[in-house]
């Protein structure tokens, strides 16, 4: 089985490169609109680790404030803002796009 790495700049579509580490891409369009961004991130990290969210050894709060993450791409007037945030949690790099897409990439094969 060939592993693929997905990379993205900004909110551009994700490209796939063969031979890269394990990657999980959670698309906002595939989720219920009521799902908080922080919950989507937790679920994507758990999927990348092949565990249930409740079985993860580290919590999202170890890397970022989940409440702040939920509010990150909305200004005080409720307008959507463009951008992305990237952080590491354990052996994974997490990229959260302003459109709600979440990309989890294994960076350390622990």
TrEMBL record:
<feature type="region of interest" description="Disordered">
    <location>
        <begin position="1"/>
        <end position="32"/>
    </location>
</feature>
<dbReference type="Pfam" id="PF18545">
    <property type="entry name" value="HalOD1"/>
</dbReference>
<dbReference type="InterPro" id="IPR040624">
    <property type="entry name" value="HalOD1"/>
</dbReference>
<feature type="compositionally biased region" description="Basic and acidic residues">
    <location>
        <begin position="1"/>
        <end position="20"/>
    </location>
</feature>
<feature type="domain" description="Halobacterial output">
    <location>
        <begin position="34"/>
        <end position="105"/>
    </location>
</feature>
<protein>
    <recommendedName>
        <fullName>Halobacterial output domain-containing protein</fullName>
    </recommendedName>
</protein>
């Amino acid at each position: 089985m060939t592993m693929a790495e997905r990379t993205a700049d900004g909110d551009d579509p994700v490209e796939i490169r063969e031979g890269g580490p394990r990657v999980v891409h959670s698309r906002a369009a595939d989720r219920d609109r009521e799902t908080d961004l922080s919950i989507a991130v937790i679920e994507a990290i758990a999927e990348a680790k092949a565990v249930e969210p409740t079985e993860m050894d580290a919590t999202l709060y170890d890397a970022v404030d989940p409440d702040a993450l939920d509010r990150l791409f909305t200004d005080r007037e409720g307008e959507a803002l463009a951008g992305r945030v990237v952080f590491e949690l354990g052996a994974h790099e997490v990229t959260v796009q302003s459109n709600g897409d979440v990309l989890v990439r294994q960076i350390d094969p622990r």
